[in-house]
Amino acid sequence: MERLHTDAAPPTVAPQAIGHLTRLFAMSPDLLAAAGFDGLLKHFNDAWEHQLGWSREELETRPYLEIVHPEDRADTEREIARLAAGETVTEYVCRVLCADGSLRWMAWSGGPGDEAFYIVGRDVSDRLAMEHELAQRAERLQDTNAELQDFAYTASHDLSEPLRMVASFLSLLDRRSAEQLDEAGRDYLRQALDGAGRMRHLIDDLLLYSRVANEEPRREQVDLNALVAEVLQVLGPSIAAERATIDVGRLPTLEAEPVQLAQLLQNLIGNAVKFHGADRPPTVRVTARRTIGGGVLTVADDGIGIADADQERIFAMFTRLHGHDRFAGTGIGLAICRRIAERHGGRIYVESSVGRGSAFHVLLPDAPAVPGTPRQV
């Protein structure tokens, strides 16, 4: 069998071009062939011998379906029928038997011809093995994350009651016996009360994060004007204490889970009120706009700002850029915001300059047409 006929080429093709094609055919690392509808390979390059181990004589005389794994032959015959009908085949994957008894996964692309069809095969065994390993790792990671979330919820829930008892007795001791202590004792008591309070906030935030991570958002049309008004009422004491100015633009209706969206807004506006410089009271602006398939919610401030190197890591759990003596907090709030955005199929990011303020943008797509399929805004 000739490896490639060149004498039948159209007379308009220059001999030099034919020589190039012949060399490319021979040197290609992919399996190239013209396969007949009678079940035999008509022309094929050396890659068939090198990669599969079959001799040229065996490949010339053995029906090519015999080197396809028996479980894949029916599907392969259907793909060949498509080629016979004049269709093109792209990325059909099947197992091929090698001469040494091993199996290789090959991805085939093919096009029809008059007396044969033309195919290109590429070994994708390593790629598929890597994809399988990555899928297994992703599944294990998902299971581990679920276990960690369950652990966080259980541990936080179980810690709440004993902590409540400790805080209650500390408060009782402060009210009844603080005057009997010296200055050092009263200072120890204040530190214990402060530590119990921080622990309570931490546990509450962990429970909130666990609920957000495990509960699928129940979406509905949310009037942002009404929702922001409710959030500002909750934050009223903090806003008054910091003498903050909250500028709320005309807000649209978005499709979201109202409780989770309120939690997100409370964290973002609360942070904007809290993280301001000492030279002036904070000014916070809340805006939102509809986009194709969703909306963008923005909370901007004129506060202390965030360095470029910290603008991604602030969304990680327990990340704090400042000490408790300057700004209170658990380092979980922005992680909750990111989780809420992701559970809605969206994302959150920040634009900021140190000393000039920050703007947090939340992209919230509408509910996807197919459940579980995120849509990008």
Structure description:
The chain is α+β, with helices and mostly antiparallel strands and 377 residues long. It has three domains: 109 residues, 2-Layer Sandwich (Beta-Lactamase), CATH 3.30.450; 90 residues, Signal transduction histidine kinase, dimerisation/phosphotransfer (DHp) domain (Helix Hairpins); 160 residues, Histidine kinase-like ATPase, C-terminal domain (Heat Shock Protein 90). 45% of the residues lie in helices and 21% in strands. It has ten helices and twelve strands. The strands form three sheets. The chain has a five-stranded antiparallel beta sheet with strand order 2-1-5-4-3, sandwiched between helices. A hairpin with a 2-residue loop joins strand 9 and strand 10. Helix 5 packs antiparallel against helix 6 and helix 6 packs parallel to helix 10. The longest helix is centred in the middle third of the chain and has 53 residues. The protein is elongated and about 105 Å long. The two termini are 58 Å apart. The N terminus and C terminus are likely disordered.
Tally of contiguous helical segments: 10
Strands of the widest sheet, in order across it, are 2-1-5-4-3
CATH architecture of the largest domain: 2-Layer Sandwich
Distance between the termini: 58 Å
Largest sheet entry: 5 strands, antiparallel
Q: How would you sum up the global shape?
A: elongated
Structural class label: alpha+beta
Strand percentage lies at 15-25%
CATH superfamily of the largest domain: Histidine kinase-like ATPase, C-terminal domain
Count of beta strands? 12
The gyration radius over C-alpha positions equals 33 Å
- Residue windows where pLDDT falls under 50 for at least 5 positions: 1-11, 370-377
Indicate how many domains the architecture comprises: 3
Order of helices and strands: HEEHHHEEEHHEHHEEHEEHEE
Helix content: 40-55%
What's the CATH C level of the largest domain?
Alpha Beta
CATH topology of the largest domain: Heat Shock Protein 90
- Average pLDDT value? 82
